[in-house]
Prior knowledge:
Strand order of the largest sheet: 1-2
Distance between the termini: 31 Å
Largest sheet: 2 strands, antiparallel
Oligomer: single chain
Shape: globular
Amino acid sequence: MEAKIINDPIWGPIELHPLCIRIIDTPQFQRLRYIKQLGGISLVYPGACHCRFEHSIGTSYLARSLGLELQKNLAMLDEPNKPDITDKEILCLEVAGLCHDLGHGPFSHLFDQLFIPKFKKPGDQKAWEHEDATLNMLNSIFKNITWNDYLEDEDIEFIKNLIKKPDEKEQKNPSLNENPDEKEQKKPSLNEKPDEKEQKKPSLNEKTDEKEQKKHCLYEKTDEKEQKKPSLYEIIANGLNKIDVDKWDYFSRDCHMLGLHHNFQCKRSIKLARVVKHGKEWHISYPKSEYYNLFDMFYTRYTLYRQAYHHPVAKAVEMMITDAFVKANKCLLFPPNKQRYQTCYLKHLSKNTYDFFGRKLEVEICWDCIKNLARVF
């Protein structure tokens, strides 16, 4: 299979890797065509009808572009012990950018922020996140396509960690299946000799060395590759300063579709991005001349939240759609009970909700749930 070129309204011609084409052709990725990027905001801004499908492709393109630029600059850098970026890692970045939103439900964040919390059980400590469904769908995709001609098993794990890092709390907390006898064995014995206790205590010099290492560490690393190359984890979802290609794409795409103006130029930031040593770690950094462009990025984010994302009418519409989902929850059935859908759903929808949306739109919303929810779970 050869690479393909598609024309994107924001970034122009985009060349897709053959592995990305295989992923795009799967049902899990094609379902993104039916999931609106901005949820119910399209009922306030008629132009905001773009979907997660094109946003995912745009994020993949920007991830590859930034990865190639950093790779080129690192190759020219005359610095001992500098990290390198391989071609395979760039492909992993491209795939991670393509698949980072696979798990979104109907109407995007409306589903996980408004609908899911209404059905959260008292005993549930961890809230459902779309990244969890993304990883499940990614496993399903790689079971059904051929990928071992480009990637290896450890590359698949790297892609998953780029999308969502392993939960640090789960690593620190003991397993629920742990034998209580093993816990007792770990506790120090009362009859333990004081000399043995003193041997276990770290010396003052060891404590100061640990503190100095923590000063140089900006945030805790949960992956071996992240410890060696933390800059790779700042491209798709940057937990350090929130400057990443995911935001660059949806800021530009949302402003374009909403009819809002913005001054931020992400292609300039890509050209000026460098991997710089901070203490003992290498992180993505930008020169002082890029200050105002990055300021425009955050101001664009503020403008989008003020004028679109938190628009009072849009939020009211999303709450009404959520109410429709809640009332239809009992009749949105999946195989083997899917045949009961048409006879059930009109009984559970209230008259007020039915009158507000209108007959045609209401049916479209419910069928959109069936098409998308059945693939999410």
